[in-house]
Structure prediction request, 394 residues.
Amino acid sequence: MQLDRESRKNYYCCMRKYELIAPCHFGLESVLKREIIDLGYEPSNVTDGRVSFLGDEEAVARANIGLRTAERVLIKVGSFKATTYDELFEATKALPWEDYIPKDAKFNVVKAASIKSKLFSPSDIQSIMKKAMVERLKSVYNISWFEETGDTYSIRVTLLKDEVTVGLDTTGVSLHKRGYRKLVSKAPIAENLAAALLDLTPWKGDRILVDPFCGSGTFPIEAAMKACHMAPGLNRDFSSMDMENIVTPKVWKDAFDEAREEVDLNIETDIQGYDLDKNMVDVARANAKLAGVDKFIHFQQRDVKDLSHPKKYGFIITNPPYGERLEEKEALYALYSTLGERFKALDDWSMFIITSYEGVEDAMKKKADKNRKIYNGMLKTYFYSYMGKKPGAK
Prediction:
């Protein structure tokens, strides 16, 4: 049964409501917030590296399948302040774990992150919280030993300035793992980061897009998936698919059916990926085929010095080499200089570059219209925007 948004809202009105937390790359919270709104949910809180929103079990499934820019989807179990391990134990024990974890479940605190907090040892935080969970569930289920023969429930914890936020992970393997990238380049960009950067540009599927340093093809593949409305999680599994007390199989089926109906493989788009390394071109082609979008992308072995295109108003979106070794760093100025020359020759094109190299504007002899700081993991990078004219503009 497929329902429109209003009917779906009424159909699931009696479902249990959760506060959901979606972490993302630092600096891209606004992009994720817009995605959540487009899915039909109202963000309740936006902080550094995460967006929270309210939703039911259907929201858990739809967010996991449909969010391009998030890292995972957590159900908030609770939050509290803790400056000692005794406080951490007692507050964790007070949370209603029986509402989330069945009697036979395997459960663990798989990750703890501490920022500017008195409790800073991840392993100690994990161990103490697991003991507190066990004590709570032993009393609720009236048992002295957990066999843990059932499905796995993973808990993730963040401490920020002594405020502890506890979440049940509904995703499992990070959302950036779409399932299509079996082979990668030397320094690949994460799929969810590439999708978020695409959303920071005015590019639409009816405009030309070229990545002259395509590597394993992430930018072109994410662009093609976006153009044909293919949900990023359509071809993968999620940990909460085994948590039937959280999300029922019917809800998952409906969410996947809805996502499949959205896909349009009859679109026309012009997406191209170039790389100097022939092996990487072959890898990109293989990844695009796995993603199911190979027919929308033209991959070709080509040096950046040969970058050209006869049409106007196209887009360059790329992740050029950063230069990790000294000899590579010395070659970066010439590389970006060449990119700048080829961009100048393209009529009314726009260009967007993510890189940690800080000499971009100097090498290209052109100041960017916008320069946005974005953290790619722990690496500080910059997203340079060079805006061309819009089609039809004088």
